[in-house]
């Protein structure tokens, strides 16, 4: 069937420019240009993957394991295959190509074959003419299991029987920096646990696979890395990559959950088997069970400091629970180990980091992976140190903050702007919100909500601080490259780049770049598919840097093509001409014309690449220039805690952030606010709980996301625009570092309010009950 038969709501996938009169006059970099698809999303006409339809459509359903660890004795699909309306049933035996896949390590089976390693692992898939028939058929597949004892404690994974042919240890990083014999006059220790945060996408995974006449398949899905998804799927299908095409549909936001192709590969297999389009729309339970989560982490710390509070040595052990498969655990561990001391100057550091397999749900890339977990621990240690020395927590941090030119414990020199002291000063000096006694009682929102059981007399206010850092782009030798084409015809510019806008605003940024460079108002961003050159995954702010850089270079090449004839005619170089508000003028005012007149009906186009400077893997001592760039953030949290009930309300989050350059003020503010809210969820409510490896309540009743009442007042106190000279536009990643920093800030504030150590995230009510007076 031709892909032309696929339909959806009126397409907004090509991100057209807003209608005349809808867009503000200002455009280009530094302005709050609205997103092109904002109106369609608001009106409900924006086409997401779940909206797609094709003629002759079949529906898919997956059978998932109810056990965390079991041996598969037999799989009987005969009853399912015999049901009216069922067109195909596929299991591990029906995978024609590679039986396993993985973005970094190919260790995850398409369907469990002989062994189940986690609750919810896919066993089989069904295609039928109705979604209910598909689900009934999946339930009719009979699987005989021999239930095995699950390994759910990551500490026991070191000595447990191997859960995978590759063993239980995925990676070990022993970081060694400085003198192991160094000691400080003051020592504090702590043991910390970070829970399993789920990406919790508002729109669950969905996709449509359509067979092609050449024996290949096209997959329409909300992919964030379409070329990698294509290559993984092609290997499992036993097809060359050119016979598999991934078309990116509307992505309903992504913080890592769109990176697992485990939904896409069974879908393509069914389309190839039946010769019909096949659609899969995951239930909320399937979404929770199928995609990866943030790594639950166990951390042990010992900080040494002198009598003035200056850090001497940090010793740490970091254990990441990768769940059943490797996924991005190696990269997450590298970030955790490298940033285990935080944005502080530490002369001596010794960190042991491990990532291990267990029978828990798989862990993977979630915004700020690795860095968020260690931030919660090292900031708790800074609070302990301040308390032991009798110092103000902000002052202790100020005495130790990192600056440009300092050296990370990995031995890498911080060459990018690192205005950490400026960020901390900004939030420390920002006025505090009014106390409850200054507000009418009826206007005071108590912890637990307006209908809660709390009493005003039991509420204590706490103020806490946290400093966080993240790396930008890939790390440890990842080849970061993106390609973009800019084409101008009939006064309209088109950007072709396979960078997926996951809510980061890349499509808006691309329009702004072209508007500023070429002086053309109407700019379109073409739909993304794998027929275009690769742009890489949408993670670590890389599309702002790498893909934005490629768009800028291509636009500048078109600019040169546009200006060269004029420069030649007037005997000057193109550098002496400028484009402003759609007009081309020379430095001396002799030349003045419009861009439209200069184009004169010509078609101009150029393709360019952007590739940042290379990095290197960490060596056997955890040393190496592993990161392209760093971004920093300071947050002051103000909380109200009911010290009798343990209920916590985050009153205000004051944030100062190192952004390099503000490219779109409104979009940047939105990204920061969203990141902080996600961090508040990790601090207080979000924990995908398991019992013996089985996920408890995989739905939004059992997994509590922050509501509008839980979201605090967010005050963006300062945005430091100190440009990173090696980054296009000088901009830095914006959304990950608030996620990393805000949970630690909330925990610090609860610590201040209650006197409790608060060594676990999310914070449980019993941990927020005030400590008894001695």
From TrEMBL:
Top-rank taxon, per record: Bacteria
Residue ranges annotated for the Aldehyde oxidase/xanthine dehydrogenase a/b hammerhead domain, each copy included: 43-149
Annotated region (Disordered), positions in chain: 1-38
Pfam family, one: Ald_Xan_dh_C
InterPro entries in alphabetical order: Ald_Oxase/Xan_DH_a/b, Ald_Oxase/Xan_DH_a/b_sf, Ald_Oxase/xanthine_DH-like, AldOxase/xan_DH_MoCoBD1, AldOxase/xan_DH_MoCoBD2, AldOxase/xan_DH_Mopterin-bd_sf
Record protein name field: Molybdopterin-dependent oxidoreductase
Species name: Streptomyces gulbargensis
Cross-referenced SUPFAM superfamilies: CO dehydrogenase molybdoprotein N-domain-like, Molybdenum cofactor-binding domain
